[in-house]
Amino acid sequence: MSEYDLLTTYISCKTAPAVNMSNYGIANLQQATSHWRSCAGGVVRAHSLLYEEMKNHPSFSGFISEMEGILRGKIEDTDVDSYIKNAPDSNRSLKCPTMGHYKLNIEYNHKVNIGVNYVNLHLYGEDLWDFEYAFDKSFLDNLKNQILPLMVAGNGRKFSISYDFNYTVKVEPTYYYILSSINMDYCLDIEGASQKNEANVQIYLKNRTDAQKFSFSKCGGYYYIVCKCSGKVIDVKHSGKDPGTNIWQYELNKTHAQQWKIEKGKTWTFYSRVNGLCLDLNSSGTYNGNNIHCWTPNNTNAQKFYVFDTNSILGLLFV
Q1: Is the pTM of this model over 0.90?
Q2: How many other C-beta atoms are found inside a 10 Å radius of the C-beta of residue 150?
Q3: Which residue in 69, 234, 250, 255 is a FRET match for 101, CA 20 to 30 A apart?
Q4: Domains, the chain, ordered by start
């Protein structure tokens, strides 16, 4: 316990009566002390009010931020429609302002989607209330965490507070700018930031809007290219096979017209699965509204793009 926790303990527990809380659920430190003094022991569930206090503590928000990063990495390495699961024995030690430290086990079994994913975590564990001297700890540690709290809480019988709840984590993918290698002032762009099917894919002067931010979702050896402004994917119009076939956005239908093989290096080249043609800048022109279509691979700069993470130093410098 911190000095603040000790002060809270003194204020909340010094006059706590002996009450068996088994049928109520424990919502705060005074109720935990009351149950301790009742000598009922056993396992007592946490009350919903205690969950809210836990979730508002910095240790919990830090845990969720950590989980977002872990889940994002798993999602980006996993094919769409496949599942990610928690590793065996996943758990975290967290802290509640008035109840002290507790441990949570983590369970999830999530089917990967394109774009934003909402991952449901099942969190469960317990907080042992015992005040027993820990021989693997120092005297000062025991004084602060066991001896002094016991003097305040009084005589009682050890028990556990059980936690069991669900928490949904919103996992944003990593977004990228796709810049023309001919002129890096121009990005791949959804015309008018449209959310509609068949909205055209063009290049436009970089402006950092969501119409110019794209994420990549795996599909075997290919990728779906997902636009942030609409949640739709880059698509070959009507699955056309001919050079010059237009590129637009369309809702996910998992056809080969929406799947792209990416050749990565200093620049990236995108090959359509449906026709083997490349994402190509029409006539190599760099001006607002110039069209993006697919064309026979020719290794020209019209088919080469710089790709930068929107949150990276390079992304901030070049866009």
Answers
A1: no
A2: 17
A3: 69
A4: 3-171 (3.30.450), 176-318 (2.80.10.50)
